[in-house]
């Protein structure tokens, strides 16, 4: 074990009592990246020099008695969808190779203000679209549990970096499940906050109606700490470690149990999680959600219509620089009309209202699946057509409710994840439940084999 294996609370305590410096902590993470990332391809750019300078400044601030909060001196890594003024930002696309922005995305600015040490930029599916693809200059990030398998996307490098022990917390984005599904596939924690809770300024948009800034972290507590440092009016850490007595969790079992793609081991794992949460004091009540297909249809129209408008001119001018599957996926929005988009947005509002009135009026949170299977082999993504993986994530981009993916078991040695969904603005309850489950189980403590 090295300093790179310390949790954020452990490292923060040592930074403050003098047992550890940020320079030493940062060097431990840089060493870990050098040792392991050749197998994972999580980092597109490692900012060693600027990270060491930021770490030295964090140490100097501590010595002056300045404390900017729990992320001061803590290494963090950023998905390559967010502008960073001192390192390349390419949006995962060869089209923007070598691009260095003139300013920081808002979330990056907030991390710097919090005293975090930015280690570098993480692999993403191209423009946060489909993947993995193999006709780009940089290879797709690999799943640390089995490097012949994908991580899920689009926050692929974020999940690989956390699961592989390269960094404890990362910034990603989530438009249809892009932090939650990679977290589930890689055995990490993924938090998609309430829509708009973390500003998206300075992130390349995929679908502004559904885009969320999210996190992939090594634990629920570390996700909550990171969230509180960068979100508007955030208090996700306030109920960590408190009892679940008095909470009602709606178990949306039928929402995934009857799907033919649901792995039996996943159903067993989430049934077991419901039982454990009951033993921890929560009341479990089965609930019925609107059909998953309704959310998926609405989300697909919004994403394809909005993404096509964003890329229309660039696609016409530089389409040859897009990977083929991404080009095809964006171009599919050509057939959608403004009326189609307007109707889909109206349907999204109706689904959100229905969920609030019929489910969240009775329960404090929802328990369901994140993905229906473990990670899929890279070989399954060969060929011309995009390969869609079975998930239950886009519904909460459509409605904007906060959602958290937490490891809940294994199938054939590969991680599985459950999903907890909260009321609008209530990340605190979602993290309270997720943390209680994490502490009472041992799945988050399991680590992949060394590369």
UniProtKB/TrEMBL annotation:
Pfam family, one: Amidase
Record-annotated Amidase domain positions: 25-431
Organism superkingdom: Bacteria
PANTHER family assigned to the protein according to its UniProt record, in alphabetical order: AMIDASE AMID-RELATED (PTHR11895:SF176), TRANSAMIDASE (PTHR11895)
Function: Hydrolyzes indole-3-acetamide (IAM) into indole-3-acetic acid (IAA).
Name of the protein this chain belongs to: Indoleacetamide hydrolase
Organism: Shinella lacus
């Amino acid at each position: 074990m090295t300093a790179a294996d310390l949790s954020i609370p452990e490292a923060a305590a040592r930074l403050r009592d003098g047992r550890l410096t940020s320079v030493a902590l940062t060097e431990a993470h840089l060493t870990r990246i050098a040792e392991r990332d050749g197998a994972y391809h999580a980092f597109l750019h490692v900012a060693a020099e600027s990270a060491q300078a930021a770490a030295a400044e964090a140490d100097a601030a501590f010595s002056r008695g300045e404390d900017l909060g729990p992320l001061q001196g803590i290494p963090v890594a950023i998905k390559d969808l967010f502008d960073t003024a001192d390192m390349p930002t390419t949006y995962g696309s060869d089209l923007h190779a070598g691009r260095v922005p003139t300013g920081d995305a808002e979330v990056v600015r907030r991390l710097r203000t919090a005293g975090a040490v930015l280690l570098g930029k993480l692999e993403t599916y191209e423009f946060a679209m489909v993947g993995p693809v193999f006709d780009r200059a940089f290879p797709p990030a690999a799943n640390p549990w089995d490097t012949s398998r994908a991580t899920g996307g689009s926050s692929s490098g974020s999940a690989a970096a956390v699961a592989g022990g390269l960094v404890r917390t990362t910034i990603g984005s989530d438009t249809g499940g892009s932090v939650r599904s990679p977290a589930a596939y890689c055995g990490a924690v993924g938090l998609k906050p309430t829509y708009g809770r973390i500003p998206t300024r300075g992130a390349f948009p995929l679908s502004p109606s559904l885009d969320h800034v999210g996190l992939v972290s090594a634990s629920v507590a570390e996700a909550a700490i990171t969230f509180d440092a960068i979100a508007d009016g955030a208090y996700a850490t306030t109920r960590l470690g408190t009892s679940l007595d008095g909470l009602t969790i709606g178990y949306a079992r039928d929402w995934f149990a009857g799907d033919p793609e649901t792995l039996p081991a996943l159903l067993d794992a989430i049934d077991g999680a419901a039982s454990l949460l009951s033993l921890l004091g929560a009341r479990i009540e089965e609930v019925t959600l609107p059909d998953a297909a309704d959310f998926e249809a609405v989300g697909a129209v919004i994403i394809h219509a909005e993404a096509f408008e964003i890329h229309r001119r660039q696609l016409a001018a530089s389409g040859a620089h897009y990977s083929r599957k991404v080009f095809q996926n964006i171009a599919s929005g050509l057939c959608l009309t403004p009326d189609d988009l307007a109707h889909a947005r109206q349907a999204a509002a109706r689904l959100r209202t229905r969920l609030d009135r019929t489910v969240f009026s009775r329960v404090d949170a929802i328990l369901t699946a994140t993905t229906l299977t473990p990670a899929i082999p890279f070989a399954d993504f060969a060929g011309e057509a995009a390969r869609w993986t079975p998930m239950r994530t886009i519904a909460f981009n459509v409605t904007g409710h906060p959602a958290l993916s937490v490891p809940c078991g294994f199938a054939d040695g590969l991680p599985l994840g459950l999903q907890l969904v909260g009321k609008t603005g209530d990340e605190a309850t979602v993290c309270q439940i997720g943390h209680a489950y994490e502490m009472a189980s041992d799945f988050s403590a399991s680590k992949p084999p060394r590369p």
